[in-house]
Amino acid sequence: MITHSHVRLKTADNDISDVVALCCLLFHRWRCCHRLSRWCSIIRLTGAGGLQVVSTGPQTVLKAEGDSVVLGCKYRSSLRVDSGDLDVEWSALSPDSTHKDQMLLSFSGGITYTHDQVLGKGLSFTVTDPSQGDASLSIAALTPAHSATYQCKVKKAPGVDTRKVTLMVLVKPSEPQCWLEGDPWVGRAAALQCHSNTGSSPLKYSWRREGGVQLPVTAKQNSVSGELKITNLTLSSAGFYFCEVNNAVGAERCRINLRAMTPPNSSAVIVGIVVGSLLLIFILLVFISLIYWKLSSRWHHEKEFSNDIRYFTVKLQLQVLKQ
Predict the structure, then answer these.
(1) Per the confidence metrics, is the pTM higher than 0.70?
(2) Would you identify the CATH topology of the domain 52-170?
(3) What is the pLDDT confidence band of residue 304, given thresholds at 50, 70 and 90?
(4) pLDDT exceeds 90 at position 208
(5) HEC string of the chain?
(6) What CATH number should be reported for the domain whose range is 177-258?
């Protein structure tokens, strides 16, 4: 009779041995135990209980330019099943199936290798020794050029497993500019504009008032262009307005003070124009009169001076003749 303890000597794994022992105790047949043991060994060699990448998380990661990121690739292996040397490879997968994938970083024989000095800049394993179950990749100072689908492949014969993560590096929106288009006259239309010069699409604009005050009833905002149009401006519409622009990785805002002014009276404007025109004409006349008086005085002075010179000249000549 085959006992439970005998069966445990024939198996390599405690959990599997329990199943095999149960079979033998029920049927008292070594053939059953032998076949079940072979079946469980096949399952182990094809993956169950062997090397597995155990990192979880989103398959798509969004990050802002300048940030850093860690792409997880933790794994576990069975010393009894996975007895080969450890090899870890990080590659950037080509979107075109006709092109080769670009290997970036690898670990083999206890040594880390960088395969592309340009794409591999800023890339490193998060731990010094990836053979301890953590082959995660760290990328510092992200740029849009780092956007790609990355694959971590861990090999330890006969086990092998992979994990893919898509990284998208976006640019945060720059601080927007706020300005007013048109005159803020009460009863007329006014438009507040908001625009950010840089930032990855799609950019979304939104307006709000300071202190949680509701936007005017006649206000309509465009989240794409950043315009807030107020078709009928009132005195209650005056105040500080905030515009916020955001995308998937960041947000910025600007502030503007909207002043609602009462338009001037048209008749008063006409009277002011007439009075101003008459005053200008009067000033011109006075100016012309002064110039004329100045020129006339100078002409009379020069004429008198000329007559005096002539008189003294004649007198001098007569005196000479008398002598």
Answers:
(1) no
(2) Immunoglobulin-like (2.60.40)
(3) low
(4) yes
(5) CCCHHHHHHHCCCHHHHHHHHHHHHHHCCHHHHHHHHHHHHHHHHCCCCCCEECCCCCCEEEEECCCCEEECCEEECCCCCCCCCEEEEEEEECCCCCCCCEEEEEEECCEEEECCCCCCCCEEECCCCHHHCECCEEECCCCHHHCEEEEEEEEECCEEEEEEEEEEEECCCCCCEEEEECCCECCCCEEEEEECCCCCCCCEEEEEEHHHCCCCCCEEECCCCCCEEECCCCHHHCEEEEEEEEECCEEEEEEEEECCECCCCHHHHHHHHHHHHHHHHHHHHHHHHHHHHHHHHHHHHHHHHHHHHHHHHHHHHHHHHHC
(6) 2.60.40.10
